[in-house]
């Protein structure tokens, strides 16, 4: 055994240095078996598959720049007088947190750039996650076996929101302080425990002397730590499941078509990291973000209009802005529904998204693995539900910025608020109906294309004077791609009598599922895809159109 | 989530059963069959060495630009003073250092990425390869083996047989995190009645926030807006932030005839009314006073209160009126509080009643 | 003295002196001004008032009444003072096209400064009110910028934002942006409280306080203001930043992603 190994290592002595290092590592870590499975791993190419990479890279950039910022930031609410180089704040009282943020922005070379990269990356990170999540949703990539990874991603989005919010609050400026005040008010609205949680979070009354230090450890340690774990898990699962792909010639549910990790994907993905970093650095050079010196230090008796949170919290801001001021007093207690309902809705709207994969798999009853992506049009009900959700989200965003809508479009803030109140409910319904119709229309068009060919735009006059447009038959690749999707039958409630003729109890959930399934896949909810027979019948009589 | 009862025939047939790993050819019976992976087509760079050379030079150029940009970054860092500003069209006056550092860093990074991607796109093999997938779930034998192993292990531990151990173990594991929860108790004090009281008390003068001088009725004109704090509270005080967060006051003067609310009139002095500046919704300092309508708007969530009618909510998400401070004039002619607010200021909470 | 000489050079010096004179009570004025000069001023003053009255009758009386007593279309102008006239007419808010609508917007001034001064003289003659401030009052000399910032955040930012960009009020009303507004007009607005803006009289916001606020605005909201981080994005805060991040941030990155993932051009089949 040992002689064999020695002989091997003697032989390796002549091998290139890199190979020798790899051998050394393999002897201790067993990296070769890992590399064997992954080095030439296949990844399909599609721009929408890189949305997740945008998130991953902006997350890395946030960590890198964040570590730099911790070297200069003082998470303390001790009061100091400002004597830095920004003149309009000279001699003002402020917390050390604000003072050190000013120091980073005006007295550390490159400090402002890093702060701006950090903040821009955070906005892009959240926006990237949102779009990535929508891509996964609308293509059905959350289906088995990827439900857990969907949840990982969802948690990353939610934790990202709170990490962003705690970070936004750290400079202790007038704008973010107003946001923290809002948080305190929202916490106070919670029945029974509200005042206690508020006292515990702020170490006493608002604002106290503790929240910056506490938010700091949450922002730089607790939440990013959890997120890092989730990101690693998310990536391991992406590798393990292998990437999904769109239907196309040669692409089946049992394979994955693309380029190998080494070298093509490594160069592209690695290069993309630099492209993302470079783009964000350029944005940070060109566009100013969160100018805390304009806002000034936080004081609970001062405020600026146009007080909004960063965009990812705009949805919560919208919910709270359009809610009517309901307050119930019962038996000496106050139920602050005007704040508490939005707080609950915030959770419900997000939870609906998180649970969707499980709801859909219950409706379809499909337990197979799915690796071929749906085109959104081929899952009309899902697509319509998704668009309805996005519509609701967007309407709350409009509500969150209602004052800016008012000033920039010369509207009344009251009318906008009423618009949001109504369209929070009506908007999603309209979006659902419209989307479904558009999807069905597109399905019909696909069917026509398969059966009658592509419209060429060439007009031909027939001998008897009739004008027709020449249709060109599709290639086999196109025929396959357009007919590759699966169509479910609506689930029926099983027979009321079992095989032994004994009457069976039909569960209520079973009836419910049959009903929903009908709404998903029933008549008029999808266009039956062309069958081979239909195709043959039409194509056999050539020239017919 | 059990779905055993969905009949198999309800699930659509898998389309890919027609094609076989990308080698199927169009067959007469099924015109929709998978034709398999299309043959690889060459790029210009694959067949024309000159084009490939051009690509190589382009990639090298990009990497060189990156090196130059990094040098530029270092030069900018050393050479540009931090307080220097320049005018850049159309952006405006910006920090020269931030602008230079950001653009050089951005260029240095972007060109590395662009070079790598250009290299991958034009010079690395672009032959598409198909890799087989394997079911995620284990084979039945493996599944059976794992289940058996687990049962064996459980049996050997006797966890099922020795119920006393099991019960007490779960009990201990359930209780031990309580210590951690307990430790959080000292994060802050109990609420008690802290949210019910402010610094205002009988005889406290209303001090102008701007001048730090006590206010006289004649200082406050109709249509004006003044902010006040209780006498004795200074910006340097240790607890200034906590106290001003509750005590901040907004003072306006109305024509007594315009005041609709009886109590408001009683608690005012010659039409001068003093209201809490802290919104009853979630606590923003509300002070967008429209002197003609006597409405005051919260800039955060647009709750609107009518100062001529007991500061009642007339729009938006706030649930109750702004608390009013009872004021009068002392012997020396200064405005003074006649007591604390009679209800908690700021956002509502469960114990508010 | 320096202030006085600066004033003398001004083409409208005489008129400004006139307006000042109008504002003071007769007794005070007599105590400070030599009798003979007062005599001459009075003549010029009554001339200006006459001119102002004519202008008023043509351009303003239809809404504000022939004697400025007000009507259903416009408020009484008795006692609003010269400062209010200088602000309203000088910023083009008056004459307003209509008394309907949520708020009268500022636009290009219709009257020349000389005409405005005459109008102001006439209105001031109807009843005592705040005078047009002098450059000594609204100039930035001797101002504390940082104190002005603190005062601005306490008194003004709730409507105009900390950066002075303006914001929404109820039912279509709004606090306008303060960018590019003349220091004199800012001073007058604080003094007089135009439209729905509350006033900040000297008793609660001293002359020095106003000076400080104007100096602060000049520092943060002028053409020369440095935005060290780059594009100001309208100074609207997180909403415009969020839009920018979506459109130019994520948008640019997706454009790059499309390039990275796109197939390289194939050689033409020959």
Quaternary structure: heterotrimer
End-to-end distance of chain A: 76 Å
Structural category of chain B is alpha+beta
Distance between the termini of chain B: 44 Å
Low-confidence spans of chain B: 15-26
Number of helices of chain A: 20
Major sheet of chain B, described briefly? Answer: 5 strands, antiparallel
Secondary structure tally: strands of chain A? 10
Give the uncertain stretches of chain A in residue-range form: none
What's the rounded overall pLDDT mean of chain A? 92
% residues in beta strands of chain B = 5-15%
Strand order in the sheet with the most strands of chain A: 1-5
Mean pLDDT of chain B: 91
Helical fraction of chain A: 55-70%
Binding site for heme c 1 (chain C): 60, 63-64
Domain Cytochrome c (chain C): 47-127, 143-221
GO molecular function (chain C): heme binding; iron ion binding; lyase activity; quinol-cytochrome-c reductase activity
EC number (chain C): 7.1.1.8
Give short descriptive properties of this protein.
heterotrimer, A: 545 residues, mainly alpha, two-stranded antiparallel sheet, 10 strands, C: 270 residues, Cytochrome Bc1 Complex, Chain D, domain 2, 2 domains, two-stranded antiparallel ribbon, 13 helices, elongated
Write structural notes for this entry.
The complex is a heterotrimer of chains A (about 550), B (about 350) and C (about 270). By secondary structure, chain A is mostly helical. In chain A, about 60% of the residues lie in helices and about 5% in strands. In chain A, the strands form 5 sheets. In chain A, strands 1-5 form a two-stranded antiparallel sheet. In chain A, strands 2-3 form a two-stranded antiparallel sheet. By secondary structure, chain B is an alpha+beta fold. Chain B is about 30% helix and about 15% strand. In chain B, the strands form 4 sheets. Chain B has a 5-stranded antiparallel beta sheet with strand order 4-5-6-7-12. In chain B, α2 runs antiparallel to α3 (about 95-120). The longest helix of chain B has about 30 residues, at about 50-80. Chain C is built from 13 helices and 2 strands; from the N terminus they run ααααααααααββααα. Chain C has a two-stranded antiparallel sheet. In chain C, α2 crosses α4 (about 35-60), α6 packs across α11 (about 185-190) and α9 (about 145-155) crosses α12. Residues about 20-35 of chain C have low confidence and may be disordered. Chains in contact: A-B, A-C, B-C. The interface between A and B is large, with 143 and 117 residues. β5 of chain A pairs antiparallel with β3 (about 130) of chain B.
